[in-house]
Specification:
Layout lengths: L1 E3 L2 E2 L14 E2 L2 E3 L2 E6 L4 E8 L7 E6 L2 E4 L4 E8 L2
Antiparallel strand pairs: 1-4, 2-3, 5-6, 6-9, 7-8
Amino acid sequence: MFWQGNRLGSNGARTFAAPDPLVLPPFTRVDSAVFYRVNKFVNFALNVENVFNELIFVNASVGSNIEIAAPRTLTFRTTFNF
């Protein structure tokens, strides 16, 4: 689980159009993972990032230039050891 409180965006110099610093809202991101070892040679893993599909503002310079995090992401991996 990741939690981030209010924070300032990466503002450049203040301008007439953007006189105040941009404050990004707090967020909580929950990730999950499940692993299964089939035998000594084969492993499976399922990772879920942003389980609850929250809208997360990662960074911003002005209100019209906001970077958002990826939505819910599933990754399945198979590992073969030999």
